[in-house]
Structures are given as C-alpha cells and as structure tokens.
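Comment thread on ticket #2218

A.B. wrote:
> Attaching the input chain for the structure job we discussed in standup.
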Amino acid sequence: MTSATMTSPVRPVDAQSPGAAFPAIPFSRLLRVEWGKATDTRAARWLLALVAASTVGLMLAPLLAPSRIDQTYTSYLRFAAVGLSILLPIVSILTLTSEWSQRTVLTTFTQEPRRIRVINAKVTVSLLLAGGAAVFGGLVTAAGLGVAAATGRELDANLNAGVLVGYLLFVLLSVATGVAFGALLHNSAAAIVLYFALPIAFALLGRASTSLGQWVDSGTTFDWVLNGEWSGHTPQILATVILWVALPVAAGLVRTVRREIN
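C.D. wrote:
> Ran it. Output below, let me know if you need it in another format.
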C-alpha cells in the first residue's frame, strides 16, 4: 500500500448527496437528453401526432356547426385548448414515469446521481412541450379562423391579452397536472388511469356539493382560467392548483429522492 493510498482512501459515492465526487453535468445537457427521451420514442411520436390530430379535429366543430357554436376568436381558441388538454398531459406523464416502468432509471441516476436535477429537467421539458403545443394550437386556431373568414362568415374579433394568458395558463396547468401524477406515482398505467378517473370523481363530488366542488374540482377551476373568469374565483383556482399540482409534485420529489432502486 502506497502512502498516497493511505492518505487518500477511496470512499463510496452517496447517490443522494454526491457533493464534489463528480463534476456537475450541465443542465442544458440534461435538458437535451430528457427532450430526446420525451420526443424521440415511437410512443411519444404517436402521442404527439394524436395531440396534433385531436386539436385539428376539434377545430372542425366551430367550422361545421356555426349555428350552435359562437363564431368568435375566443371560442375557436378554446376548442384548440381543449384539444391540447386531452392527450398532451399523457406525454408529460410518460416523461416522468417511463424510466421507472421500463427499469432504466438506474442508468439515469448512475449517470446523474443528483436526482432532483433529473426531475427538474423532466419538468422543464414537459413545460417546454406545453409551450410549443400552445403555439401550435394558436396556429391551428388562426387557420380555422382563416377558413371561416374565407366562407364569408362573420367573426367577432374579441381576442385580448387576458384571453391569451388564460389559454396559455390552461394548457400549462393541464400539462402540470400530468407531471404531478407522473412524479408521484412512478407508474405509467396507474398515473394515466388516475389522471382521467380522479377528475371525474371530483366533478361528481362537485355536483353533489357545489360549494365543496369549487375548491377541489380542477375541471371547473381550470375552465375559469381558460375563460379568464378570475374575479371571485381566484382562491378556488389557487386551491385546486395546490391540490392537483403543487402537493403531488412535492410528494413526488420526496419519493423520488428516497426511493430505493432495485
């Protein structure tokens, strides 16, 4: 045994607090890797294609039923928002859960033992996808309005900054809810099922008790966000954001940091 070995013993690396044992991987590199995981798989590409198709498909509703649906810029944009909110959160769920389900998480956390940084990258990628999808929905809306105008239809140009902000927040909150379920459950199937089942259950609870439903039913409060109806509803909106997004994400972070990898 040399004197160097005696004075500088090799110590195992703590996966939770590696400190200076490894140089930090640049966060931009983590983003590129997680972006690839979220978009470059066959399942992700099919899901993103279905998100685009559902958004375009719902835009046909105001075009084909002008007598039953308000012919306004805002109305068209809301259809795009609903189209994005159906399947886009599933992409974010898979971004958070696929490695646990496919048992590749050991490789990921070996390359980057700082688990919080990996989760931050996944969340950031999900929100970037939401922002890109919101832009796509805006383009689809513009195309739908162009088709409607070309047919000689009268359209009420009632878009304003508040409507656009509500639209963007609605898309981001929908995706963030998917992120929350994925971060907490670590299981793709369970997270997807509960993402659709729990809001339905809470919506039924809201019908049974309107006063309670306004505080727990994200379907109602997120619609207020989309419609820009903040006045008188801000506490309820914030309560559901805490319930459906903040608390599950926080619990998911704790679970991710503490969970043993077999």
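A.B. wrote:
> Thanks. Noting for the ticket: The CA atoms of residues 62 and 68 lie 8 Å apart.
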